[in-house]
Inverse folding.
DNA sequence: TAGTGGTCTAGACCACCGT
DNA sequence: CGGTGGTCTAGACCACTAG
């Protein structure tokens, strides 16, 4: 059972505002799985009593984590750890659309999985040391059984060790829910860069086109809830069928 | 001088939470220019007294408008209407990068300005009635004096009437600050769609390339602070030099 | 009906800014 | 120094959910 000393004993910086310390503590609970999405987290009044702070202070911390998409409130029911699977998790990062701008619903097939030493580019984009090992995936994504996207995905082999023990056929269509379920890693944010080029031999084969066919190249660096660079992805899509939609705020 | 009756008399729905009504009222003040970026808005305590609510309620409303990028707080100084010009206004919507992913700093040159009847596409993307008139701009954006982007921009001629009286040479490099200064219209949000095609005759000429040269086509629909579709923009960029970066959350 | 989050109040004290 | 926003407290009552 948590006590009112837990805040004092935790590693959070005591010079920070109380609600910040609470946030750090709550994020740790989510990361470590102490709070799961199975049941509501303790009520605001309980949390206030646990940590010896006013309910308004707890509320402020929870507000921030709701804004950061880590928690969801449900009036009358409680506050829950956000389920990554839930709702439109797909369309948060998958921005491909048809010619009319309508979102596409893709499926996925893993082509290969291999552990190897990280190359220079991977070390750079995953903040790894020389000699570190990565897990590399190749994947196609299909819409109505037509290949739309060829992806090369790299992650830190050490952090993603559980992934080596799961059959690629059981990965499912979405990797981020898998990362969370199998490795306890939550992707919160990503940066994508789009440019145009010509298809590599591998991409061309899997996209059923000739080498040198025009493609859109999408590079993605994804970050987890500790802001650590966690996944590096380079995708190719046939330029002739490429359409990508994004909201700027 | 505002009185405590102003909330009751305003058009905001009185069934809404108080802080929501305050937000609506504050947004109206910003839209109408009653609050400008020249001086701080009234202090939280003053606002609470003006409208007969608790300071915490005012604070909640201001918090939301800060999150929506309409206001900025400055501890010890006051709260200010956000200056669109300020800081990185450019890079909020301009997502073009060099080959290394570094943001590019473009200038702009207006090529033409013309008022005409809206075509079907413009009516659709600007929510205009048949027969409505639009102001059409053509523009090139340059990086180090090299043309990077050819843009066709359409806005409601009626709402943007002041723009017809300003010399295009005086428009400056950024349109959204101009929209605000000249027309009191603030762009808050935009949706962009990227695809791949071949250059139109006009675009090719201004990008110094042949007709049919591969280009990236970027369509943008921009919305103002009332969520009204306000600007419709179709841009073309040489595919060979196109690079576009965006953060997904 | 009991318990949850949602709204709102009415203060206190602190950190920061300009004068 | 006085005034601003930043943090924090300690309640009240309402709206919603589940049993």
């Amino acid at each position: 059972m948590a006590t009112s000393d837990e805040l004092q004993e935790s590693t959070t910086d005591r010079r920070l505002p109380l609600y910040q310390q609470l946030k750090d503590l709550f994020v740790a609970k989510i990361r470590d799985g102490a709070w799961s999405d199975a049941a509501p987290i303790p009520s605001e009044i309980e949390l206030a009593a646990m940590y010896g702070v006013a309910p308004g202070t707890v509320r402020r911390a929870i507000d921030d984590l709701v804004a950061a998409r880590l928690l969801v409130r449900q009036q009358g029911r409680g506050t829950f750890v956000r389920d990554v699977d839930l709702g439109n998790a797909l369309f948060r990062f998958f921005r491909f659309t048809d010619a009319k701008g309508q979102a596409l619903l893709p499926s996925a097939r893993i082509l290969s999985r291999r552990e190897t030493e990280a190359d220079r580019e991977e070390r750079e984009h995953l903040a790894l040391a020389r000699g570190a090992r990565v897990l590399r995936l190749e994947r196609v994504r299909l819409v109505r059984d037509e290949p739309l996207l060829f992806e090369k995905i790299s992650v830190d082999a050490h952090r993603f060790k559980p992934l080596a023990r799961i059959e690629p056929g059981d990965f499912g269509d979405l990797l981020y829910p898998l990362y969370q379920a199998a490795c306890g890693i939550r992707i919160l944010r990503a940066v994508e860069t789009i440019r145009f080029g010509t298809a590599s031999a591998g991409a061309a084969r899997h996209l059923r086109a000739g080498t040198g066919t025009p493609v859109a190249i999408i590079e993605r660096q994804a970050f987890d809830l500790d802001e650590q660079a966690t996944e590096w992805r380079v995708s190719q899509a046939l330029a002739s069928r490429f359409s990508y939609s994004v909201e700027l705020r």
User: Anything to note?
Assistant: Residues 17-19, 53-57, 60, 74-78 of chain A lie near DNA strand D (CB under 10 Å from a C1'). Strands of chain A lie at 71-74, 78-81, 107-117, 133-143, 146-156, 187-198, 214-224, 229-238, 243-248.
